[in-house]
Amino acid sequence: MMPPLLRLATASAWNRRAALSLTVLAVALSVMLLLGVERLREQVREGFAQSVSGADLIVGARGSPLQLMLYSVFRIGEATHNMEWSSVEALSAHPAVDWIIPVSLGDSHRGYPVLATNQAYFAHFRTGDKRPLRLAEGRAFGGLFDAVLGAEVAHALGYRVGDRIALAHGSGESGLAEHTDKPFTVVGILTRTGTPVDSTVHIGLEAMEAIHLDWQGGAPIPGMQIPAGYVQKFDLTPKTVTAVIVGLKSRAAVFSAQRWVNGYRGEPLMGVLPGVALAQLWQALGYGERALLAVSVLVVGVGLAGLIAVVLAGLDQRRRELAILRAVGARPRDILALLTLEGLGLTVAGALLGFVLLTGLSFVAAPLVEARLGFALQIGLPAAHELFLLAGVIITGFIASLLPGWRAYRVSLADGLTPRT
Amino acid sequence: MGPVVALHALRFDWDAVPCLDIPQFELAAGEQAFLHGPSGSGKSTLLNLLAGVLRPQRGKITVLGTPLSTLSGAARDRFRADHLGLIFQQFNLIPYLPVFENVTLPCRFSARRHAQAGDMRAAATRLLEHLDLDAALWHRRADALSVGQQQRVAAARALIGAPELIIADEPTSALDADRQDAFLDLLTRECAANGAALIFASHDKRLAARFSRTLALPDINRAGGSA
User: What is the ipTM of this complex?
Assistant: First the structure.
């Protein structure tokens, strides 16, 4: 049998379940928000960090390191300056450099960014826990107008190997000039990575050069049209690229390599350590994250305040009940414990329900989030910092519950056996 | 065996207004006393003092040889749980608990009452049967019962675990005349069977006939009374 106070608290709460369940739901929703914000924050960070595993340096035209990271790895924003191909060759020849992946951005296909690169991308690019890219279907590009699609592009647009697609100049959803004269053939589709790779259309650097042969300043040159069949006659070595992802033979050389890049005489370049740039990103986003966290903490506070208010409001109607308990031998401190136990129990129920709701919501939203935001929602038992937050909520609820407990204590001392109601 | 209750030079004021001033009062073991007093004569205050919820400003309250007036609040609560059964005018029961759990509630707050009751279920069953409560009602919520049924459940709860003193404050005033008589019969009979002393407070003098001893509070109280 349950100890009397616990039995009384649960029976009494069950008796008022209509009012209490609403406040528990409010607490649950607030806890769900708090945990959800935390989880999203963690997973955005993890998602970003997973997008560049294995790269030691990102090199591009001098400018903002953060911007270079954002557009070269996350396809957010656009490059303002490119770097010369000669610089790429010089970098490649540097003794500390193991491999390089040159990338060119700027075009798009139905809203998905187009990344021009070479075979090194498939050989050296790593995501997540140093996982190489894998093809779910087909092969890497070999021919000039071959394209390899990220998993999400293929899934969302329903493309299969063998389909023909036209790229658009610039990025965006609509209103763009298209390279319809030089369509690409889908030759491969990558497996899902949970990174921006999934929503990228990959083509060769030479193809990027080829589709822009008869273009200048972002528009086709009037009266000039070079048919697809003839482009092979031109030198398709790229003149510029957007950025170069660099792997070094030894991690220890990263700072000397960075110095070499930053001091490169051919043109103003910069080398960025992905980890450092990400740290800058988090710093930049820190205020927003903290504001979001503060708001969700406040919402939890509002939820708990509502719960305490309901428990307090019920107290006046329960004075008779408290007097009966006093008559059968309950001490005022038992009354304090009874009311505190009730508040604590409701808080715990709200916190657990909040976690369950979040888990349920994650199940429903996971495919959507993965498709739209490119990272996998984690589902499972609460992580350590989430347990910490839950414990914080419960301890706050306990302390707040002392208020109705203390009021009930005063009331039962004053009323004795004859409540004045 | 000494008296169950002994009051000596008891003095209680509400905010410096004298309410009770009782030079001397005693109740013998197993005695059943009718305490008469109009409302406002200090009846409830006296019962709260006897139950150890209030403490007198002066004088001595001895219950079962224990000087209640000198015990700490927690010790008086423990004493009440162990030795007293209380019945009020109405709303005696925890509305959301089943009848059975209401009856056994004192055993959960007092190890002594639990021990004396022996098997709690058997003790509650016996009392509810003696008090003529239909077995079909035992597992109902207390607030599903009529007032008369609730008062009988309250009596069973007061009697469980054989407390030495039962204090009843207007327990029949919410009942009609027939039921008042039936309830009084059951209560006095069960108190006698359990060897419990009974203080039965009421403003209704007609009930006094059934008691071996009748007291008028205004007669033993030198203060005017006010609660």
Answer: 0.89
